């Protein structure tokens, strides 16, 4: 059997890392896979995640491109050049058959090196508005995978497939009952509040003020991920408005959950930013979500993601600047007080879920090999 070697790249945020890891894990199960190398920034989250995997991490320093002409732009260009040289060495040494990248600045050096060495590469873009690296390199890619139909018209590549985002296999296996048991929750209405691994200040501040009413007065289970950076501030604020919150069994509050699959599969309603991977996992969990997009996301992609979901009847939209305890509570109540409306949004979200993204992307990669 002619076994293949693959380079996987993508990093900086979970939206780039977890899809790349899901595809790498899928390729690793193939009998014709010889070796997988993950190319990423050693100072980013991807380095820690890959340590636990059965593939080798190849470090390359990288950073986002400054948007204005300044000394920082010169430094970035030099770093990119050094990264490109290093990646040429990796390709020459390990001889990958195909390179798979999920876009973003982390993937740029190795994909430029792939173009130089004429190694075929496949790209996947997660967002309704494709990122800069994806847009610029799409014409040179052997094949493109996207999460949303609207992306196809924005990318110059004829071999473009709508696959959804590659998500972890557990989302198609774990049941709501088992997820709740794993978290020590009862079988009743459950709300998940999350602002990503770093948290979201506006979401946190509003949630603190309404947590008592939700969990005690309305008897709703609340899973609250504050983000590591904001955890202490949340605890301090919560002690002022709800000193006895730790005695309430309806509340699970942590800075970060290692197993977000359990959290999402246990939930009925969500409050979330609008990163593409988060959206895919919320849909895979049939959650009716109140989307509060991060207003400073690159190319405003989170707003576009959120509005795409609302247009398809699969979510509610709330601006970050409009997020107050009152507006957030009213949005949650609009779902709780109208069970048919809640069920309709959950069903629409579920209809948008794609569980076979990994398999479809692997098929594209293998065809390129």
Describe what you observe in this structure.
This protein is an alpha/beta fold. The protein contains 14 helices and 13 strands. The strands form two sheets. The protein has a seven-stranded parallel sheet with strand order 3-2-1-4-5-6-7, sandwiched between helices. Strands 10-9-8-11-12-13 form a six-stranded parallel sheet, with helices on both faces. Helix 11 links the parallel strand 12 and strand 13. Helix 7 crosses helix 8. The protein starts with a strand and ends with a helix. The model has no long low-confidence stretch (mean pLDDT 92).
Helices and strands in order:
Elements: E1 4-9, H1 14-28, E2 33-40, H2 45-51, E3 56-59, H3 71-94, E4 98-101, H4 108-117, E5 121-125, H5 132-137, E6 143-146, E7 160-162, H6 176-183, E8 190-194, H7 201-217, E9 221-225, H8 231-241, E10 251-254, H9 260-265, E11 269-272, H10 276-284, E12 288-291, H11 301-311, E13 316-317, H12 325-336, H13 339-351, H14 357-368
Parallel strand pairs: 1-2, 1-4, 2-3, 4-5, 5-6, 6-7, 8-9, 8-11, 9-10, 11-12, 12-13
């Amino acid at each position: 059997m002619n076994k293949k070697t693959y380079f996987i790249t993508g990093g900086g945020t979970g939206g780039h890392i977890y899809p790349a890891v899901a595809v790498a894990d899928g390729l690793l199960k193939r009998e014709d896979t010889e070796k997988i190398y993950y190319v990423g920034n050693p100072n980013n989250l991807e380095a820690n995640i890959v340590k636990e995997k059965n593939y080798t991490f190849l470090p390359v320093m990288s950073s986002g491109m400054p948007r204005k002409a300044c000394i920082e732009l010169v430094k970035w260009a030099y770093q990119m050049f050094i990264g490109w040289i290093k990646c040429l060495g990796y390709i020459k040494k390990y001889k990958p058959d195909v390179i798979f990248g999920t876009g973003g600045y982390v993937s740029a050096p190795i994909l430029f090196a792939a173009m130089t060495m004429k190694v075929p590469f496949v790209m996947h873009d997660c967002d309704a508005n494709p990122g800069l690296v994806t847009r610029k390199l799409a014409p040179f890619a052997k094949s493109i995978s996207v999460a949303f139909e609207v992306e196809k018209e924005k990318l110059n590549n004829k071999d473009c497939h709508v696959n959804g985002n590659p998500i972890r296999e557990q989302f198609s296996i774990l049941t709501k009952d088992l997820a709740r048991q794993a978290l020590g929750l009862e079988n009743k209405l459950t709300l998940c509040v999350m602002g990503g691994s770093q948290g979201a200040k506006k979401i946190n501040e509003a949630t603190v003020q309404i947590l008592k009413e939700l969990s005690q007065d309305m008897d709703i289970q609340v899973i609250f991920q504050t983000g590591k950076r904001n955890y202490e501030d949340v605890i301090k604020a919560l002690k002022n408005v709800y000193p006895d919150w730790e005695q309430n069994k309806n509340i699970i509050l942590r800075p970060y959950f290692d197993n977000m699959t359990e959290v999402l599969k246990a939930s009925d309603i969500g409050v979330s930013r609008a990163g593409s991977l988060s959206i895919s996992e919320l849909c895979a969990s049939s959650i009716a979500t109140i989307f509060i997009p991060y207003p400073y996301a690159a190319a405003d992609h989170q707003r576009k993601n959120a509005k795409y979901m609302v247009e398809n009847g699969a979510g509610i939209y709330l601006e970050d600047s409009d997020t107050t305890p009152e507006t957030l509570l009213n949005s949650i109540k609009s779902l709780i007080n109208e069970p048919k409306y809640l069920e309709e949004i959950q069903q629409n979200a579920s209809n948008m879920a794609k569980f076979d993204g990994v398999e479809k992307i692997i098929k594209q990669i293998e065809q390129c090999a």
